[in-house]
From TrEMBL:
This is NADH-ubiquinone oxidoreductase 12 kDa subunit. One of its GO terms (cellular component) is respiratory chain complex I. Belongs to the complex I NDUFB10 subunit family. It comes from Coemansia thaxteri. Keywords: Electron transport, Membrane, Mitochondrion, Mitochondrion inner membrane, Respiratory chain, Transport. Signal peptide: none annotated. It is found in: Mitochondrion inner membrane. It is a peripheral membrane protein.
Length: 88
């Protein structure tokens, strides 16, 4: 049996005991993605507040938030098929 987290959906294991582990892995992946998205949402809200508060000086005073937002943005995007369904 594969190590925890390494179960992939195939015809052989789709209707076996690995199915429960497959669903657990899917739920973990979805939960992790939502945590990343919610963290990014908080940073975006803080950034909007900073823009509003700083007005003219927002380019200098909100720089750290912009850099953090841009750094975290690619990680928080959901796209394509989930990793547990991707082909090798």
């Amino acid at each position: 049996m594969a190590e925890k987290g390494d179960v992939k959906a195939t015809r052989e294991n789709l209707y076996t005991a690995d199915r429960a582990e497959l669903f657990d892995n899917r739920d973990r992946i979805v939960r992790d993605q939502w945590v990343k998205i919610m963290k990014l949402r908080i940073v975006r809200e803080k950034l909007a507040e900073c823009y509003h508060r700083e007005s003219v000086n927002h380019m200098q005073n909100c720089r750290a938030l912009v850099e953090r937002y841009l750094k975290d943005l690619p990680e928080a995007q959901i796209g394509g098929r989930p990793p547990y369904l991707k082909d090798n």
